[in-house]
Structure formats: structure tokens, C-alpha cells
């Protein structure tokens, strides 16, 4: 019979069992579910709601069930619907009727909300750590490329030269915001809903704060209706994840472009590329492409979750079971992508000469000629027009600005002198942008040192919080 079979006169239609069961995917929550149950049963005994001996028996039983599930020896069934009832059933099989005391003062509604929060806070710590590893790889490449110049682009047209280090540090900044957002969301995830019961609280004199403390929560969800209805923390995570995968996808796109014969700016290590079944010469940046592609499923999960929740009356509705697969898939997708990206970036070969050639054979120093004239008191708008004509002349005569003779320069402006040949060199152009956040070498080094400090803060955060979320079997 079902754990809830008392008021039924017939067995459930098999298709209904199959359709409504969540065990296929929520078995991922097993260890968190049991963590929560251990804390709950400890509290039940402390509050004299059940005898201490019973609580001890239940705890031993739960640990055996946990081991069996981990070892793949437990039979998890659709007839028992979800992880919560499967664990309870396994417990009763293990220790007998006393196992039935575990669910005193608790509902699956507050239990599942608890499991989701325990799972997610653990995932957040891991993802922050993986993001910081990727930042480390990007900073490594930045340090190795403090003199590597490539064209910076707008509209994917060469615009102004920048240091490759500067380009890498732009991504470090994006991932820093991602880390901040995840850290910022943590306190909202880290609240205990347990004790809300089905929706209204419970008649037993439970101690919600004691449960929260045992599980290292920062506090409880105040309102019992909200505690069982709230999935904002899932939406928030999916939104944060969407930004992370969007950043990874933009980086992926650049890697794909840079690896092409048209750019030849980088070569990804063989270990991170794949071949073609037909064309023997191919080496494809599949990992980058796939990460770019997987942004679709992560955004989909965000919209899916928002849509599922929209219009749900409080409190629990079965619709909410749909919160799991998208969240699990998002966590797995991010973990997979980040774990690959860090070593793929570290091992990437940067083709400095090709990058430099792309800068030299171009007009990305044109702004500097205009700025040069402005420094000689020509209004910027006029300087812009003069340089526009010089560029047009170069294009028509198949030259670049640095190929012009002094006489040619003078045709455009008498203000131009010999020092222009120094001013227009890519190195000078880059280092002239010596403002906070600019691409001058010293400014990029500044960014690297700020980033390294923040990286240390993150490493500390990760070790503190990794300990906090690890309450397993305490
Ligand atoms: N499997 C359910 C879920 O994931 C657990 C909560 C079920 N509660 C209920 N009253 N049917 O949402």
C-alpha cells in the first residue's frame, strides 16, 4: 500500500504512478534529504516529541539507508513516487514501524523545499570555485601576454589596438560579477523552510531554529506559506546561471573565430578539440561551440521556471515538482562547461605574430593621428575629417598610415611632424591609453593585481562556505 493509501479504495492507475513520480530525477536529492531528516529527528527528540531511543534507532536506520543508496543497493521505485517517500519506505523496511515516527510534524512540502535549498547552496559553492579557477586561467594568459597586441573590434571591424591581456581581463571582470551575484544570492538560499509543515505550521512543539542551526542555515523562512511556496531562489539561480553561460558563450564565440584560418589568433590544444569523420584535415573547437549552444537550454530553464510559477496560488502545487530537472541540468551544464574552460584557456596557444600583423596592416591607429592633431590645438572634429581623408588616400594608394612619407603627411596637415612615426606605432598607441581601466600595460597590470586580491577573497569564501554546506552526517 502507498504511504498515503489510507483514504483510497483503489490502487493508483499505473500511468498515473509513472506520470506523477519524480524519483527518476529527484534521487539526486537523496543525501540532502537524509541530511535534513537527521536534523529533523534530532530536533523531535530534543523537543520530547518522540523518545530519544526512537530517534537513535531512526538515525542509525537513516545512515544505513544512505549507504545503501550510495552503493546502489537500495531499490527506488515509482510506486513510492519520490525520494522522500522512498527513503521513508526504505527506513521502515530497515528498522520497522518506529521509522514511521520520522515524518512527525513534517510534510513533503517543507521537506522538498529544504532539499532543494541544501542541494543548491552546495552547488553554488562549487560553481563559485569553478568560476575562480577559470579566472585564474584567464589571469595566467593575461600575465603571459602583457605585450601581445591585437586589434580591438567594434562591429567586428578593427577599431583600436589593445593588449591581449586587457581582453582576457575583460572576461575576468564578467566572471567576477557572476561570482558576486552567486555570493549575494547565498543568504536567500540559505534559510530553512522546515517546520512549515504542509503549509500552516504544525501542532507539535517543534524548534525550527534548532533544525536550522544544525544544518548551518542563516535562519528560517519566516512565513510558513511562503516557506513551502517560494522558489524564487531557484529562479534567481537560473538567472545567475544564464548570465554565466552567456559570458561563456561570448568567450566561446571569440575562441571559435580566433581559431579559424581567417583569424589564426589562437590555437586550442589538441586535447580540447575534435576531428571530422570525413575531412581528415579538420580540427574543430567543439567544446567552445557546444558551450555556446548550451546557453539555449539554460535560458530555457529560466523561462520554464518563471512560467511554471506564474499564476500558482500559494501554497504547494504539484506544478512545483517541475522545479528540479531544470535546476539539476543547469548545475550540471555549468559545472561541465567551467571544468573544461579553465584548462582549455590555460593550454591555448596565443599566436602573437598573427595578432600583431593584424594590427600593423590596418588603420587602428587612426584615432591616434586625430588625437595627435588635437594636441596641436586642432578641434577634434576637424582632426577627424583630416584623418578621414588621409585614410581614404591610403586605401586608394594601397598603403597604411605608417607607410606615408613626411611629404604625404604634410599634404593633410602642416601640424604633422617626424614624431608621428613613433606616435602611430601599435605599442605607443596601446600605452597611450594610460587611464584607469585603459589598455596601457601599467593599467592592465593594475587590473591584474586587483583581480588577484579578489581571487584571494573568493578562495577564502569558498573554503568557509564549503565547510558550512558540508553538514553530512554531523
Ligand atoms: N515530489 C514532490 C516535489 O518534488 C514532493 C512534494 C510533494 N508534495 C505533495 N503534497 N504531493 O514537489
From TrEMBL:
It catalyses: 2-(N(omega)-L-arginino)succinate = fumarate + L-arginine. InterPro entries: Arg_succ_lyase_C (IPR029419), Argininosuccinate_lyase (IPR009049), Fumarase/histidase_N (IPR024083), Fumarate_lyase_CS (IPR020557), Fumarate_lyase_fam (IPR000362), Fumarate_lyase_N (IPR022761), L-Aspartase-like (IPR008948). Pfam families: ASL_C2, Lyase_1. Residues 6-300 form the Fumarate lyase N-terminal domain. Its main location: cytoplasm. GO terms for molecular function: argininosuccinate lyase activity. Its EC number is 4.3.2.1. Residues 363-431 form the Argininosuccinate lyase C-terminal domain. Keywords: Amino-acid biosynthesis, Arginine biosynthesis, Cytoplasm, Lyase. Gene3D superfamilies: Fumarase/aspartase (C-terminal domain) (1.10.40.30), Fumarase/aspartase (Central domain) (1.20.200.10), Fumarase/aspartase (N-terminal domain) (1.10.275.10). It is found in: Cytoplasm. Pathway: Amino-acid biosynthesis; L-arginine biosynthesis; L-arginine from L-ornithine and carbamoyl phosphate: step 3/3. HAMAP family: Arg_succ_lyase (MF_00006). Belongs to the lyase 1 family. Argininosuccinate lyase subfamily. This is Argininosuccinate lyase.
Amino acid at each position: 500500500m502507498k504511504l498515503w493509501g489510507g483514504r483510497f479504495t483503489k490502487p493508483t492507475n499505473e500511468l498515473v504512478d509513472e506520470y506523477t513520480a519524480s524519483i527518476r530525477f529527484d534521487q539526486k536529492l537523496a543525501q540532502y534529504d537524509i541530511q535534513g531528516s537527521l536534523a529533523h529527528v534530532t530536533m523531535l527528540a530534543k523537543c520530547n516529541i518522540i523518545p530519544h531511543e526512537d530517534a537513535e534507532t531512526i538515525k542509525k536506520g537513516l545512515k544505513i539507508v544512505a549507504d545503501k543508496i550510495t552503493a546502489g543497493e537500495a531499490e527506488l521505485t515509482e510506486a513510492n513516487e519520490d525520494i522522500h517517500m522512498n527513503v521513508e519506505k526504505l527506513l521502515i523496511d530497515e528498522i520497522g514501524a518506529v521509522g514511521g515516527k520520522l515524518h512527525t510534524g513534517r510534510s513533503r512540502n517543507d521537506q522538498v523545499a529544504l532539499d532543494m535549498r541544501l542541494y543548491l547552496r552546495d552547488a553554488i559553492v562549487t560553481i563559485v570555485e569553478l568560476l575562480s579557477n577559470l579566472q585564474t586561467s584567464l589571469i595566467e594568459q593575461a600575465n603571459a601576454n602583457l605585450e601581445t597586441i591585437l586589434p580591438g573590434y567594434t562591429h567586428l571591424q578593427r577599431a583600436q589596438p589593445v593588449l591581449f591581456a586587457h581582453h582576457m581581463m575583460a572576461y575576468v571582470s564578467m566572471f567576477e560579477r557572476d561570482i558576486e551575484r552567486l555570493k549575494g544570492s547565498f543568504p536567500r538560499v540559505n534559510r530553512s523552510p522546515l517546520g512549515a509543515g504542509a503549509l500552516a505550521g504544525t501542532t507539535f512543539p517543534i524548534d525550527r531554529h534548532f533544525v536550522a542551526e544544525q544544518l548551518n542555515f542563516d535562519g528560517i523562512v519566516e512565513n510558513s506559506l511562503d516557506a513551502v511556496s517560494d522558489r524564487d531562489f531557484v529562479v534567481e539561480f537560473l538567472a545567475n546561471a544564464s548570465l554565466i553561460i552567456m559570458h561563456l558563450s561570448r568567450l566561446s564565440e571569440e575562441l571559435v573565430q580566433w581559431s579559424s584560418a581567417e583569424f589564426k589568433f589562437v590555437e586550442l590544444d589538441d586535447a580540447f578539440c575534435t576531428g571530422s569523420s570525413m575531412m581528415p584535415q579538420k580540427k574543430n573547437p567543439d567544446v567552445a561551440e557546444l558551450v555556446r549552444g548550451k546557453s539555449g537550454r539554460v535560458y530555457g530553464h529560466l523561462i520554464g521556471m518563471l512560467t511554471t510559477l506564474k499564476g500558482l496560488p500559494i501554497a504547494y502545487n504539484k506544478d512545483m515538482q517541475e522545479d528540479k530537472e531544470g535546476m539539476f541540468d543547469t548545475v550540471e551544464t555549468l559545472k561541465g562547461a567551467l571544468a573544461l574552460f579553465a584548462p582549455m584557456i590555460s593550454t591555448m596557444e596565443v599566436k602573437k605574430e598573427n595578432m600583431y600583423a593584424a594590427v600593423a596592416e590596418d588603420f587602428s591607429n587612426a584615432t591616434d593621428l586625430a588625437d595627435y592633431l588635437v594636441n596641436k590645438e586642432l578641434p577634434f572634429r576637424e582632426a577627424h575629417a583630416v584623418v578621414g581623408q588621409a585614410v581614404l588616400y591610403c586605401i586608394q594608394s594601397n598603403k597604411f598610415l605608417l607607410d606615408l612619407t613626411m611629404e604625404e603627411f604634410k599634404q593633410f596637415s602642416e601640424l604633422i611632424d617626424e614624431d608621428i612615426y613613433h606616435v602611430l606605432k601599435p605599442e605607443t598607441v596601446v600605452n597611450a591609453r594610460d587611464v584607469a581601466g585603459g589598455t596601457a600595460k601599467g593599467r592592465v597590470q593594475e587590473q591584474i593585481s586587483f583581480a588577484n586580491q579578489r581571487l584571494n577573497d573568493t578562495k577564502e569564501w569558498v573554503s568557509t562556505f564549503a565547510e558550512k554546506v558540508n553538514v553530512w552526517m554531523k
